[in-house]
Amino acid sequence: MRKSISITISVLLVGFRFAFGQISVSNLRCELLVNPIGVDKEYPNLSWEIKSSYRNTQQTTYRILVSESKNNLMADKGEIWDSGKIASDSTVFVSYKGNKLKKDTRYYWKVKIWTNKGESSWSETAYWHQGLMNYKDWAATQVGEMPFKDWGGRWIGFDRMFPWDGNQSENRLSARYFRKEFKPSGKIKSATAYIIGLGLYELYINGEKIGNHVLAPIPTDYTKNVKYNAFDVKDKLKEGANAIGVVLGNGRYYTMRQLHQEYKIKTFGFPKLLFNLILKYEDGTEAVVFSDDSWKGTADGPIRSNNEYDGEIYDATKEMPGWNKTGFDDSKWLKAEFVQEPGGNYEAQLSENMKVMDSIAPVSISKISGDRYIIDFGQNLTGWVKFSVQGKKGEQIKLRYAESLESNGELSVANLRDAKAQALYILKGSGKESWKPSFTYYGFRYVEVSGYPGKVAKENFVAKMVYDDIRTVGSFESSNALLNQIYKNVWWGTAGNYKGMPVDCPQRNERQPWLGDRGIGTIGENFMFDNARIYKKLLNDIKLAQKTDGSLPDVAPDFWRYYSDNMTWPGVMLLITDMLYQQTGDFSAVEETYPVMHKWLRYMKDRFMTADHILNKDSYGDWCAPPVTIEAGRGISANQKFPSPLISTAYYYHFTNMMANYASLQGKGEDVLYYKDLGEKIKEAFNKAYYKEEGFYGNGELTDNLLPLYFEMVSEKNSNQVFNCVINTIEVKNKGHLSTGVIGTQWLMRTLTKYGRADIALKIATQKTYPSWGYMLENGATTIWELWNGNTAAPDMNSQNHVMMVGDLMVWYYECLAGIQSSATDPGFRKITMSPEFVTGLDFVKASHHAVTGLIKSEWKREKGKIHWMVSIPANSSAEIYIPTSSLKDVEESGKSISTIKEIEYLRNANGKLVFKVPSGDYVFKF
């Protein structure tokens, strides 16, 4: 049987993985995941994935060709860059090193590799489009005028409210509509539209919406940086007159809450637009259609109000048919006005926009009273409802969104705080109409419909699931149905809270990128989602939010001014950096984060560390630890802080170890010595201050002991006693349950497993009584609650769609139950550590993760007293396999004794497990 090697090709930009197409030697399957148009980096990174039916396939050499001409590339000519044959096994983060790249230019590339099993053919062709790289690349010259004037583009908008907007305290502001007609002066070779529409935009050319995204661009601190999107629109243009139309929504630019909280909430101003359409003609000339006061605009359109918290009001009687097409009479529209630019640097958006990712039909519709109905979609999700209707002009349909119902069947909206979370649609009365909002989203399972003319039928309503357009790259299934359903709940909650940044919740008047809600959980998320770009963007948001003195916020971008000076929330920056480095091999995350963290740790030490090395500053403690009983927390707000210097000191110690490691990787010898010395002093002080002779730390709480155990702060002579205290707390005091909040839950499952008690971890994971993830499911949860007692706590802080209580559960699923873990010494899954816990109580586990190197699988089952374990290791990677037996004779691979398999190398015996080095390929072990 003929075996083959094939390549999947992609572009990585400063650490971001863009998969443009999956290309084999014989055929092409286009799989566009991220728009490759509009790249602003001088030296993009390139990557490819090797697929081989040979075992032990290792790349030895590659050659990359880059060309402006697709024909040249097909002829194997790379006039922009021919790397030549490079002896290297690298397949990701391969830096472009060719000629200087030009703005607004498409580059085609391909790669060929040589391996120890032979060479591949050239890959199929991929491309990226270099965008606008500098401020002055945003041209402001009339169509046909050459050369470009030496100044940046012009921002347009209306920096004022209109009479129908009400007053600012009501947070009502209508959408702005802008239009421009133009005629190309020649035959078009290429046409690229560049747009910064703040806060949100929809772009149309000749009446057709450009792109399948929604709620774009992604949010930033607009005073620091603003993101542009770019689109190839050549096929949308025609000879003669063309029309550009842009609708601007408020997003986060026109703040969701005005005036009464200026001390807390950043405000930016009114919506505004910067636009360039670069036309390149066949004769070699160029022109730009740009935003200026020749555009016409109005705010008197159908979107009368749009607010992320409160929803959208749409008056279909105000629609303007043909407004975004040529020939529209805009004589009553206003002249667009020049407005102040937002202040932030212009940057290409290298992470995904949001998109409608799924559609969900109603499961039931119930009449409440009068014309009010409740639609149940059966799943808590984020997005909106699209409906169709037929009625009379002026009739009004009102939608109200909520996560749950009261006992009388009414919507439960108390946990929304003052977010209205509603929509109002006014019919135009011209036959069948359909509508969805444009510039808001909701967190909901239930929708109340009132004023709907005719029958409220299931076929007229559909829920649209909206989140960042990122791939699901992981799967998990086990013999335990509860574990499987928890996984699904985590998936829904995690996906729904990707909103151009990871937010805490999607329903109430918050929706903020709280840093403490993530942390270790991001590793589990990365096993599930191809989310590296959104977290690389978050690292930059944190970096831009750092104050001159070194302080970091609890929220980034810092839309809320929360600089509370604590270790656990800002310190998530280092945990996310570690996730990106370990999971994807992106060392640039380390290089870019290190100086920020170094400055912050010095700041915290100088201000808050005592002379005896206790970090005496914390803000939240073990945030939202569960009340002792479900009744003890009834009606009580969870918004209570219990600062813990034990937690802040332990975290500072952990960070010194991480920083020493990263200093070493960067060759910063003085920093290595500094952090190691400081860490030893903190460790000594910590044990002196918090260790009790009875064998526990602090007050003996679960989190108090988990942290020093996982961070290896406990002396060898005391570690068993401290761990026994952990087990006693869980088994006796908690009757087999956890008692951790946001901090402790991040270290719970792996600490138990690390110290040999995966059985206790499984017991916690499969509990159905309070407090547990299973308890949430038993009480109707379809995502993960903010609180362990989410069914009894006061509603002021009680989201039913949060991820902060997931902790390290998903990490435990993948790394411990399935045994898929990236090696600490060779990150990015070049070397994989595979050591599953074949824990009693599970009959099988099946998991996969599509890493940057390729697809990894681990599937094991019990059968007739034996373990059958199927493993897939991607080409150009290897694994260390841990098998819990003491005899080589007990292990088979594909029906043969493992000692006879030439590719597999026995390494050692580690704590009763045989360790083997296994190269790439598919294997079936039996023992």
From TrEMBL:
Enzyme Commission numbers on file: 3.2.1.40
Domain (Bacterial alpha-L-rhamnosidase N-terminal): residue spans on this chain: 187-357
Ranges where the Alpha-L-rhamnosidase concanavalin-like domain occurs: 367-466
Start and end residues of each Alpha-L-rhamnosidase six-hairpin glycosidase domain: 472-816
Alpha-L-rhamnosidase C-terminal domain residues: 819-895
This protein's UniProt keywords: Hydrolase
Name listed for the protein in its UniProt record: alpha-L-rhamnosidase
